[in-house]
Write a structure and sequence with these properties.
218 residues; alpha/beta; Rossmann fold; six-stranded parallel sheet; 7 helices
Amino acid sequence: MAVVTTSIDEDIWQDVWDEERSWREEKPETEQTPDPFALVIFGATGDLAHRKLIPSLFNLFQSKLLPGKMEIVGFGRSERSDEEFREGLRQAIQDAGTRVQERVWDEFARHIIYLRGNYDDPKSFEALGETLDRLDREAGTENHHLFYLATPPNVYADVVAQLGKAELEKPRQEGGWSRLVVEKPFGRDLETAQRLDHCVHEAFDEAQVYRIDHYLGK
């Protein structure tokens, strides 16, 4: 049986290659830089923040994957100073098996402050709003606010309600954004999940809400 071969028209392929090269030159690949932001961690003195969140944030910072204008606000019920809070986080990072270089830690720690407050107290959230306004002015976080619920699930509703009452669920200036991250479990069953969903949507639009299970990345 005769084998029939077909030749490829090199002129056609050259046209394709030229078009592809032209497209890439017009739209060069650029590395995306994260927006400046202020991250508020509710439950900042708890196990989740110490064992998961802060070590992960430090690794991102150490790898230069966080913006230079980034601030972390730890919000908790325990009484402690900024320095005491930072030292506890440093120990948590070391306990997670990460080598902490003094120079890198000092730079990271400058972006961390602690705010004592109660989750159902309007005055605590007024103080949080004032703190975020100050960081926007002085640290250049540009009214980009990320609220992370690392608390026990039974206080989720209190935190969300107070964020809404303090009007922290919406940007305070043009170009800003506010987002809410909720850790699992999201309710105990369908009924409680729907109830919590209703509470969240009284303050935040669905596009602002991120429900997360930190074990999904393992």
